[in-house]
Each structure stands twice: as C-alpha cells, then as structure tokens.
Specification:
This protein has 116 residues and is mainly beta. It contains two helices and eight strands. The longest helix is centred in the N-terminal third of the chain and has 7 residues, at 30-36.
C-alpha cells in the first residue's frame, strides 16, 4: 500500500512579490528550496496564513540568497506582498517506509533566510 505523506515544508515565509502577468508558479529562493528538499517543477500546496487561501502550483528557482518568494500568474491573486505563507510538498511512499521517513521542515527567519 502507498500513502501520501509530508515530504517538505517551508513554514512561514513572507511573500516578496506577486506577478500576475507571469506564467503560473511560485518562485522560491534556491537556498530555501535546497534546505526544504524541493526541486524545480515540483508540485506544492501554498497555504496563506493571512487570508486562509489554499492552492496548488509548482516551484521555479529564484536567485540564491535573495529571499525571494513570488507568486506568479493566477496565484498572484491569492496573496499580497507581505502575506505569510506555508509551502508544502508530499510524497507517495510504501506504508512501512513512510513510518521511518523524516520530512524536511524548515523555519526561515523574517527575511526568508535559513536560520543558523
């Protein structure tokens, strides 16, 4: 049996940009992607702490060290700059393997940087 479990989570980052006229996705600083074990084009859920919106999109790389969190295309209507969001990805895994799996969960600082 396969089950869907939490794979990666970026907990509480601040939206730095919203670009309605860009092809849809979420742009994430590559440092945050690496720390959270996310890859480009990976499917993610975005949860907006400020307004309760929950939606699905995919990841594109943002400049490393920039702190960039940009919602693009239609998703830009679901946020405003300054909103706090949570980014989550899931994985399908064998039930027994899932019991031993540890997700990558990161808690960036207020500038969307990795805490040391």
């Amino acid at each position: 049996m396969q089950i869907r479990i939490l794979k990666s989570k970026i907990h509480r980052v601040t939206v730095t940009e919203a670009d309605l006229n860009y092809i849809g996705s979420i742009t994430i600083d590559e440092d945050l992607m690496d720390a959270a074990n996310l890859i480009e084009n990976e499917n993610v859920d975005v949860l907006n702490v400020n307004n309760g919106e929950r939606f699905e999109t995919y990841v594109i790389k943002g400049p490393r060290g920039s702190g960039q969190i940009c919602l693009n295309g239609p998703a830009a209507r679901k946020v405003v700059v300054g909103d706090i969001i949570i980014v989550i990805s899931y994985a399908l895994m064998d039930f027994e393997a899932a019991k031993k799996f540890s997700p990558s969960v990161i808690f960036p600082d207020t500038k969307n940087r990795i805490k040391n």
